[in-house]
Design brief:
224 residues, alpha/beta, Undecaprenyl pyrophosphate synthetase, six-stranded parallel beta sheet, globular
Length: 224
């Protein structure tokens, strides 16, 4: 059976679920946060060491300001009310992306990372204002500035995910089959599962089914 060390998830479909069942995109985001907490618990049960969640992309700034403000309000409340519990569970939080938010949210993000820095049970990488193309360009700029040779190893060292193993498995909910500028370099050899369910409807049973299927896949990495 394949070892599973790192799961990445594109949590797609909150807004569509909210419109369908609550007549509000924001309601979908709120319920989607409950799904996040359930998946975190199940990730720990499965002894997976890394969980990367795509929460807000560089392209998501095109959404209505009211929705963006609601999303960041949810995140602020989560960090205020839940970071202590994550810390007690020995969970580390790392932010991927550019921290160009309000002073309040930036401070909460910095404090949360600092507080959980030495935790070891699970590392949650939260991709916020993240875009893989920008990440790659920044990495090449750093390599050029340091006058280093461009190699796969040097590029990986200059990504925001340095010291984090590449995902073994990517899950995208919401019945959309694309990567949407997420971890384009890191996902080169990941197994990808596209799920029809919208993120708020995704549950522990779905998660464990995918994990089971992943572990049975024959992974060749170019070999026969």
């Amino acid at each position: 059976m394949n070892p599973l060390n790192h799961v990445a998830i594109i949590m797609d479909g909150n807004g569509r679920w909210g419109l369908k069942y609550k007549n509000s995109r924001n309601a979908g985001h709120k319920v989607g946060l409950n799904t996040v907490e359930k998946i975190i618990k199940e990730t720990i049960k499965n002894r997976i060491n890394f969980l990367t969640l795509f929460a807000f992309s560089t392209e998501n700034w095109k959404r209505p300001k009211k929705e963006i403000n609601y999303l960041f309000g949810l995140l602020e409340n989560f960090l205020i009310n839940r970071i202590e519990d994550l810390h007690k569970q020995n969970i580390k939080l790392k932010i991927l992306g550019s921290k160009k938010f309000s002073p309040k949210l930036n401070k909460l993000l910095r404090n949360s990372e600092r507080k959980t820095l030495n935790n070891t049970k699970l590392q949650i990488n939260l991709a916020l204002n993240y875009g893989s193309k920008s990440e790659l360009i920044d990495a090449f700029k750093r390599i050029k500035k340091n006058k280093s040779t461009i190699t796969e190893k040097n590029l990986s060292r200059n990504l925001q995910t340095k010291n984090i193993p590449d995902p073994d498995l990517l899950i995208r909910t919401g019945n959309t089959k694309r990567l949407s500028n997420f971890l384009l370099w890191q996902l080169a050899y990941s197994e990808i599962f596209f799920e029809k369910k919208l993120w708020p409807a995704f549950n522990v049973k779905d998660y464990n089914r995918i994990i089971k299927e992943y572990k049975l896949i024959k992974r060749n990495f170019g070999r026969i």
